[in-house]
Amino acid sequence: MSEDVKILVCDDSMLIRTQVQNVLTGAGGYEIFHTTNGEEAVKTYQKEKPDVVLLDLVMPEVGGLECLKQLKEVDKEARVIIMTSSGTKENLQEALKQGAIDFIQKPMDEDKLLSMLEKFKGR
Amino acid sequence: MFDKFFGIYLLNKKLISNEDMQKILHHMKSTHIKIGTLAIKEGLMTGTQVEEINLLQRSKDKKFGELAIEKGLINQNQLESLLQKQSEESNLQLGQAAVDLGYLTYKQLDHELKNFQNDAGFSNAQLEALKTGDQEQIVRQFIDFDNPVFYEYVSLLLRNIIRFLDQHPWIEIEESFQFQKDPAEEVTAYQYLDNEQKIFTGIAMDEKTFKTLAAQFAKMPVEDDRLAEASITEFLNLHNGIFTVNMSNQDKKFEMSPPDISRNKLPGDMEVTGGKYQIDINTSLGKIKLILAS
């Protein structure tokens, strides 16, 4: 049996964290870690070495783009998917330039989220 | 929209009470006819196609008709015919509901519809905006903002309320939309948008409405206060996110600060120098006070 895919969710919204938790728990096969800000996300990443990070852009103090930069400094292979409601061309171009692998628009389409994460199973 | 003002007109003439109005809105909610339903009825789209478009609407700030055309399911002429049918039905929906529930007779309905334009004191342009239900025009005809982006902001908020919270929002028409005083005994979710000028955006409501709308947006029970706060701030954040994307497409750049909650007053550091506005938006789930300032 393959191991669960480790997902690190970094979003300051308790609602988004709860919704992601519900979707992934319902689907099964995921181990989920939650953080509410960029600084905490980098620490948890170093400790847990997740397979994928789901990262919000708009957060207090260390925002999503800064957090992405720090994650890439810690591990240049870090796989980061941006979750955002403010997906302006500039924000997304910047995120992709800094090494994000994909993005998902809020409100999240549950099926889309699951199909994005499905491919990391069995790796 | 016409319906809502006809409803307010009936309220002002004391032909119906506030309680009657709530019941009428609930009755309308169960009978509201959507473009998708009309398209099925007219044999223009299948149920599966309608569901596909509804799903697409969750991720795109576009109307049902626009998406159906983009997907090649209907053409522009067919959409116009559907909108016409919807408008004919919706203009009379509130009146019909008032008769169905026994608050008005058909004779009274006929009489009041005819008197509505004269008594309500609207200009022709204002009445036309109400009849067509064009929210952008309604906002433009009734509110005098000092910041032009606020027109688009309010129109988009009404569309997002329809998408995520309630089918029947309507703006309370006031003599002045200037912000008066801090909302008492209310919860305000707020967020700043930065460009050359800082914009304050806030939605205030009473505790009961706050909980009801929070559960509606989250699509789950929100007994926990923190989850209710997270739900309403996320709604505002989502709306502001769509607004900044729309503005960015017009080469107007805004940066969003994280949203926050304030109880019984607006945040003390409300950093604005321009006009402050309050627009009361009624829904069948309660009143939302939109506060905008720049």
Nutshell version of this structure?
The complex is a heterodimer of chains A (about 120) and B (about 290). Chain A has about 120 residues and is α/β, with parallel strands linked by helices.
Fraction of residues in helix of chain B: 40-55%
Question: What is the C-alpha radius of gyration of chain A, as a whole number of Å?
Answer: 13 Å
The first-level CATH class name of the largest domain in chain B? Alpha Beta
Termini separation of chain B comes to: 28 Å
Average predicted confidence as pLDDT of chain B: 84
Question: Would you mind describing this structure in some detail?
Answer:
The complex is a heterodimer of chains A (123) and B (294). Chain A is built from five helices and five strands. By secondary structure, chain A is an alpha/beta fold. Chain A has a single domain (5-118), classed as Rossmann fold, CATH 3.40.50.2300. In chain A, strands 2-1-3-4-5 form a five-stranded parallel β-sheet, with helices on both faces. In chain A, helix 2 packs parallel to helix 3. Chain A starts with a strand and ends in a 5-residue tail after the last helix. The mean pLDDT of chain A is 93. The two termini of chain B are 28 Å apart. Chain B is an alpha+beta fold and 294 residues long. In chain B, a hairpin with a 3-residue loop joins strand 2 (187-194) and strand 3. Chain B is 54% helix and 14% strand. Chain B is built from 13 helices and seven strands. The chains are: A alpha/beta (123), B alpha+beta (294). The interface between A and B is medium-sized, with 23 and 25 residues.
List the topology elements.
The complex is a heterodimer of chains A (123) and B (294).
Chain A: E1 5-10, H1 14-27, E2 30-35, H2 38-48, E3 52-56, H3 64-74, E4 80-84, H4 89-97, E5 102-105, H5 110-118
Parallel strand pairs in A: 1-2, 1-3, 3-4, 4-5
Helix pairs in contact in A: 2-3
Chain B: H1 2-12, H2 18-31, H3 35-41, H4 47-57, H5 64-70, H6 76-91, H7 93-100, H8 106-120, H9 124-132, H10 135-142, H11 149-164, E1 170-171, E2 187-194, E3 198-205, H12 207-218, H13 225-248, E4 255-256, E5 260-263, E6 276-283, E7 286-293
Antiparallel strand pairs in B: 1-6, 2-3, 2-4, 2-5, 3-7, 6-7
Helix pairs in contact in B: 2-7, 9-10, 10-11, 12-13
